[in-house]
């Protein structure tokens, strides 16, 4: 009798089976599902969404509640994410150091430019806002800290894509998932935009998401010359008698800030 056929060693299926951790997968599935819910979900809703049985979900939810990754409502019928994952992410030393270095520079920019600014990094197919500073005035436009913003239809996303290696850019675009309200662009439109950004070194354009706003975005470059982050200001021009810094002035200020935070190659 011939032995049963086996998948070739080293094949994707073989590797996936070798390192399976079903319990971990269940927990991660629950966390990822709850991360998309504003009001949380009941246990029955979680079971239905994940296609798991009651005992699997009950045990895993109890452990996640016990470890404080998930919060149970006072009535005990709904589950939401706690802030523990957010706190853990901000304990990560390299990210902490980067944010600690960036915030004073961002604060100086906001005070001089009288505009808000935010810092984004690539995260699982889109961008994550890791730092944000409001302008000093009584009004302005800002992006909430911790927000996920689009990769392919925002100034920050275009700048992040423009300053990557070709292979990394392809990987990022492959991982991209649509966000709410995303504006569809063709591959040709994206390629033309990225080429223009590379030739200028930054992007300045009317916002694709709000009237009266001009997005200005510069890359924060790592030692290899690739973008590790994007710094962006949603510029709003005053039309009253107050004389604020001009768009050209603000663009130069943001350029200077991004240059100070970039890690330039040694010559």
TrEMBL record:
PROSITE patterns: HTH_ICLR, ICLR_ED. InterPro entries: GAF-like_dom_sf, HTH_MetabolicPath_Reg, Tscrpt_reg_IclR_C, Tscrpt_reg_IclR_N, WH-like_DNA-bd_sf, WH_DNA-bd_sf. SMART domains: HTH_ICLR. GO terms for biological process: negative regulation of DNA-templated transcription. Residues 84-267 form the IclR-ED domain. GO terms for molecular function: DNA binding; DNA-binding transcription factor activity. Keywords: DNA-binding, Transcription, Transcription regulation. Residues 21-83 form the HTH iclR-type domain. This is IclR family transcriptional regulator. It comes from Trinickia symbiotica.
